[in-house]
Amino acid sequence: MKILTIDVGGTNIKAKIEGPEDRRKFPSGPAMTPKKMVDGVLGITQDWEYDVLSIGFPGIIKEGKVITEPKNLGSGWKEFDFHTAFGKPIKIINDAAMQALGSYSGKGVLLFLGFGTGLGSAIVVEGKVLPMELAHLSYLKGTFEDYVGLRGLEGMGKEKWQEHVHAVVKRFQAAFLPDDIVLGGGKSKYIDDVPEGCRLGNNKLAYEGGFRLWK
């Protein structure tokens, strides 16, 4: 069984098939609808053969269905039929949960925090992944996402942003008592001072998480 994994982001849509082939991508953004995403993926993968797909989506997923429209993309995601559009079996999961699953070392409790346009979060316990929505909880004069997401990085600068990253990590360490903490997402590359007990993630592991969904 050949698996194609799609990572739906606010900046790019990325696709990777199992094997040595490099990932492929095309630009995303506020006008990105599910139909445009499907057409784009079919376009960049037309020479690849695959049997099933995994989709990492930046929003809430329940029982394999999109529950909320994404904040940083276009509309129409909640009612969209991905199975019919691609003509193949689909598994869809929160994007942070997919990278968390791919980052899991196989034991204990892993806390994944994804620093990107917003803040993704998930926990993996003994191989079982639990997506969370910590980004919108109250923090100081706003939410966690306001301070450690892209708005915080651009508004405060890297040094101040990293201070909040450390503060947020400490709060979640105390709350979840994880054995391992992975700091991933596209903006994790700006973390120069990695908090104690944490390791930087690798965005390529999002694809591994997509592959693991079928195994």
- Measured between the Cα atoms of the first and last residue, the distance is 10 Å
Task: Give Rg in angstroms.
Answer: 17 Å
Strands side by side in the biggest sheet: 3-2-1-4-7
Unreliable stretches = none
The run of helices and strands is EEEHEEEHEHEEEEEHHHEEH
In terms of DSSP E residues, the strand content is 25-35%
Please summarize what this structure is.
The protein has 215 residues and is α/β, with parallel strands linked by helices.
Question: Could you explain the architecture of this structure?
Answer:
The strands form four sheets. A five-stranded mixed beta sheet has the order 3-2-1-4-7, sandwiched between helices. A five-stranded mixed beta sheet has the order 10-9-8-13-14, sandwiched between helices. Strand 5 and strand 6 form a beta hairpin. It contains seven helices and 14 strands. The mean pLDDT is 95. By secondary structure, it is of the alpha/beta class. 40% of the residues are buried.
Helix and strand arrangement:
Layout: E1 3-8, E2 12-17, E3 24-27, H1 34-44, E4 52-57, E5 61-62, E6 65-66, H2 82-86, E7 90-94, H3 95-103, E8 109-115, E9 119-125, E10 128-132, E11 138-139, E12 142-143, H4 144-148, H5 150-156, H6 158-176, E13 180-184, E14 198-200, H7 205-212
Helix pairs in contact: 3-7, 5-6
